[in-house]
Structures are given as structure tokens and as C-alpha cells.
């Protein structure tokens, strides 16, 4: 029997690879002869590259770049032949800043742009840009500056590539690195928010990046203003394209300056890792994540794997840290069984502290049910 394991991380307790290892251990206790293939997955947010690295075997490229507050930071991206995998959080992420430093109006994506330029110089002609976990709200001005663009105010003064500059821009100078035109850019994000407005980048995300209410309004005006400028000057209306509001408007910036095509996180990662081929060869599929809830069903890792299991008619089981779906909700899903680490006999503290061992046990229980079904 061949079993494919494809789990996300169990946030706060297990990495995706650790979770896969625990599930494998549980499977082999029930079916010692099973062939087990492990595929750690992520939904495209920060930490995605570390998760998929074990399967892709890309080369890590380390470099010093401009951090979100213009201090140099050490960052890295993956390079495999002519394909680069860039995680913007590595250069422009919120986790690079102490809580008291986080301030969206002052933050830049310049370092992310520097990684892109480095990849272009090394011959990358397809670049996946993963945009979760940003500290920024600059609509990609930093990326654009790294590529060769400049932004000016009404007095022809050059503006810093930060969110606070957006509403002051009256003209755009410079031109893009010539390699951009010969490169395919894929914007990987599950965020579908528009660029501005009540559901836009500033109103939905800027508060968690250190912006106060007045600054959120200022940033929203800036995103609207910059969008209108691009619409007038470049004849490109980006504001309401799903994903434009991702990463403080970097989604829109990537579409404008890189002609990037937005793609769903889990769908893209499964494609990169040739998930369908592995699943077609398997007899059953086990997936999992920390919390199995309604949000799962809106596009997380388990939803993506569940859809594929249904498509290829493979028995599908779920392990998780905690399950918040009711029995009747689970019964409506194409799932043989769900086993949660935390149950009536296990406290939250024990579930977190002994997650690996408990996941082995829950997997044994899951596989037993799947074999009987």
C-alpha cells in the first residue's frame, strides 16, 4: 500500500516536516509494509520556502538587503536553474522588526526588490514571489525603486519608497531593469482584497503593522491616489483585481511593475511540487494542520488536498491539532475521518507540549478507521 502524507505546519508545536514525520511513524505502526511519501506543504505565507525546500532542493542564495526600515538585513531566496523562489518576508517582513518598531507608513519593500534584481542577474526567468507576512504598505514602491523607477512630488523632489509617500507622488521617472520584460513573475497569495477602501490593504492589514487610525486613512488615500495615477499614466486599472491589496499593496505593485500574474497559494505550491503525480500513484491521502475549522475550508492546505483527493477518488483522512467543525459539518465533506490531537482526554497544554507523540497516536487511530471504511 502506498500512502501520501501532505500536511501543513501545526502552528506553535510542529513544523510541516515534523508533522509529516509523526504521521509516517503512526502509519508504519499500523501498516509496517506501507510505502510512505511525505510532502510538507504551506499555503504561500511566510515560512513557505523552508517548507517546500526539502522537495525542491533549490540552492539558497544569501545576500544582505535593505530591511523594512532601511537597515541592512540578511535574507535568502531559492534558485533552481532559471527559476527563483522569493519570499518577501525574508527581506520586508514584520518579524524582522521589534513590536515597538513596526510602522507601516515608514516601511519599504526595497529589500524584496533587491532580491528580485539579484535573481535576474543570476539568470532567473521565472520568479515566484510569495508575499505573506509583510511589514509594509508601500504598494511596491520599494520593489519598483530597486528595479530602476523613481517617484517625485509636485516640486520634483524624489520621494522615499514608503507608504507615507504614496499620496505625494505626481510623476514616475526611470525605467525598469531590462530583464523584467523577459521574465515571468507569479504572485503567490491567498489574499483577495482590493487595493484600497474598507476591504483594502490599509484598512484591513495596516493596524497590525503599527499604523494608527489617522495613518490608516492616510495610507488608504495614498493607495487610491497612486492607483489613479497609474490608471491615468499607464492605462492600467489595478485597484480591484483580486490580490491587489496583498502585502500592503505589493500585490498591485507586482502586477504594475512586474506584470505578475496572481495565483492561489496552495494551488501554486502543489503545482510546483508535482502533487497530482504523487497522489495518482497513492492508495490514500492524509493531510493535516493545526486548526481544522471554517477558515480551512476557504483555501488552506487541507482544503486544497481535499479537493484533489476528491478529484482523483482517493480515500482522504485528516489529522489536526484541534477540530472546531461539528460532526454534521464533517459528514458533509469528502473525508473518511478526522482525528484531533486535542480531545476530551487531552488538555490544550498537553496537546501543545506532546504534539509529536500524540500525533503518532492519532494517526494510528485514523489509519485504522480508513482501513475499515
Automatic annotation (TrEMBL):
- What is this protein called in UniProt? Glycerate kinase
Provide the family line. Belongs to the glycerate kinase type-1 family.
Q: Mind listing the GO molecular function terms for this protein? A: glycerate kinase activity
Pfam families, per the entry: Gly_kinase
Question: Does the record bear Transferase in its keywords?
Answer: yes
The answer, when asked if Transcription is one of the entry's keywords, is no
Alphabetized, the UniProt keywords read: Kinase, Transferase
GO BP annotations, alphabetical order: organic acid phosphorylation
Amino acid at each position: 500500500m502506498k500512502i501520501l502524507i501532505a500536511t501543513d505546519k501545526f502552528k506553535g508545536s510542529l513544523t510541516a516536516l515534523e508533522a509529516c514525520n509523526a504521521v509516517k511513524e503512526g502509519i508504519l505502526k499500523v501498516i509496517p509494509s506501507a510505502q510512505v511519501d511525505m510532502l510538507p506543504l504551506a499555503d504561500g505565507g511566510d515560512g513557505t520556502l523552508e517548507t517546500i525546500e526539502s522537495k525542491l532542493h533549490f540552492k539558497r542564495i544569501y545576500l544582505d538587503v535593505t530591511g523594512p526600515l532601511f537597515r541592512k538585513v540578511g535574507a535568502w531566496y531559492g534558485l533552481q536553474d532559471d527559476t527563483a523562489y522569493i519570499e518577501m518576508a525574508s527581506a520586508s517582513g514584520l518579524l524582522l522588526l521589534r513590536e515597538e518598531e513596526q510602522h507601516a507608513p515608514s516601511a519599504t519593500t526595497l529589500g524584496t526588490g533587491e532580491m528580485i534584481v539579484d535573481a535576474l542577474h543570476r539568470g532567473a526567468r521565472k520568479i515566484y514571489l510569495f508575499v505573506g507576512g509583510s511589514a509594509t504598505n508601500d504598494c511596491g514602491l520599494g520593489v519598483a525603486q530597486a528595479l530602476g523607477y523613481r517617484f517625485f512630488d509636485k516640486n520634483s523632489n524624489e520621494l522615499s519608497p514608503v507608504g507615507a509617500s504614496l499620496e505625494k507622488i505626481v510623476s514616475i521617472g526611470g525605467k525598469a531593469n531590462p530583464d523584467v520584460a523577459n521574465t515571468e513573475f507569479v504572485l503567490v497569495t491567498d489574499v483577495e482584497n482590493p487595493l484600497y477602501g474598507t476591504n483594502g490593504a490599509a484598512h484591513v492589514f495596516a493596524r497590525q503593522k503599527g499604523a494608527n487610525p489617522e495613518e490608516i486613512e492616510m495610507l488608504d488615500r495614498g493607495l487610491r491616489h497612486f492607483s489613479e495615477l497609474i490608471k491615468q499614466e499607464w492605462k492600467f486599472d489595478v485597484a480591484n483585481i483580486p490580490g491587489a491589496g496583498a502585502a500592503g499593496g505589493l500585490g498591485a505593485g507586482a502586477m504594475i511593475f512586474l506584470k505578475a500574474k496572481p495565483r492561489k497559494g496552495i494551488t501554486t505550491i502543489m503545482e510546483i511540487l508535482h502533487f497530482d503525480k504523487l497522489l495518482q500513484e497513492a492508495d490514500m491521502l492524509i493531510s493535516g494542520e493545526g486548526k481544522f475549522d471554517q477558515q480551512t475550508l476557504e483555501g488552506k492546505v487541507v482544503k486544497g488536498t481535499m479537493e484533489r483527493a476528491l478529484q482523483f477518488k482517493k480515500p482522504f483522512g485528516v489529522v489536526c491539532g484541534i477540530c472546531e467543525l461539528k460532526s454534521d459539518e464533517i459528514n458533509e465533506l469528502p473525508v473518511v475521518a478526522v482525528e484531533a490531537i486535542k480531545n476530551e482526554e487531552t488538555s490544550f497544554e498537553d496537546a501543545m507540549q506532546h504534539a509529536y507523540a500524540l500525533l503518532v497516536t492519532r494517526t494510528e487511530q485514523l489509519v485504522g478507521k480508513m482501513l475499515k471504511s
